[in-house]
Amino acid sequence: MTAQLINGNELSTQLRADVARRAAALKVKGITPGLAVVLVGDNPASQVYVRNKVKACADSGLHSVMEKHPADMSEAALLALVEKLNNDPTIHGILVQLPLPVHMDAQKVIEAIAPEKDVDGFHVASAGALMVGRPGFWPCTPYGCMKMLESIGYSLKGKHAVVIGRSNIVGKPMALMLLQQNATVTICHSGTKDLKAQTLQADVIVAAVGKRNVLTADMVKPGAVVIDVGMNRNDEGKLCGDVDFDGVSKVASYITPVPGGVGPMTITMLLVNTLEAAERV
Ligand code: NAP
To answer: Residues 108, 146: one domain?
Structure first.
């Protein structure tokens, strides 16, 4: 078997065109969806991420504000900035780029964001809403993975999904989203005894670990769907995922590539969440 690619760039292009259409419709009513991106410090990777987010907003007709502050900004000043953005009617979504400098309590800052503007979906209110199946913002990366499964018309009902990784931003919300679609879900982590025994039972595998080759061909049931969230560098310094792509794509039915898979979907779902925040006003 040779797996079919789920192309995150193509799907993103389609979804972003829809965002642009809906943003244009809101503008007719006098509302321009607005995202505030807050960057504290000069982490080079964070600088690239926020630039990409601001550019993606502009490309889809969303307004964005970049709040860039030095690493020695006080936590109190950051909390005051978040409060100001909470009260700014031109801003519908607030994103505080993580990681924050070590002198700040990141969770406290995230929880200062008004839940109706929490377009990253990291607020405990958003996590709680996802857990009990109430409307709220879903974290962008697992939400993007769900859109990828939807794009191939995959029904999760009765399927066995294995999520590798249990972080609050990817693994856990991913598992809840799969559960909500009636999959039977297993969550694996660094303490899982026999990962291969788990993954071999899976119809769907989501790898969100941050280690190369966590999933190899011998660990995948023929015909399984494989979603690779990981972002790593290979020996040549090139971006790669958690999955041994060449081997697994000979066994799986569908697979997401890295790059060009989940990565672009994450920013796309941020645009979708920001648009929806503006539509809910
Ligand atoms: P994280 O917070 O470091 O979590 C990694 C998870 O993997 C943890 O739950 C850990 O288990 C588990 N793990 C570690 N080694 C393992 C092993 N050998 N077997 C099974 N599980 C293992 O990372 P994250 O924030 O969830 O991100 C995961 C990856 O996705 C990273 O590569 C990150 O860069 C990437 N990512 C990509 C995007 C995107 O847009 N494409 C977005 C977010 C993240 P414990 O809990 O037991 O420690």
So the answer is: no
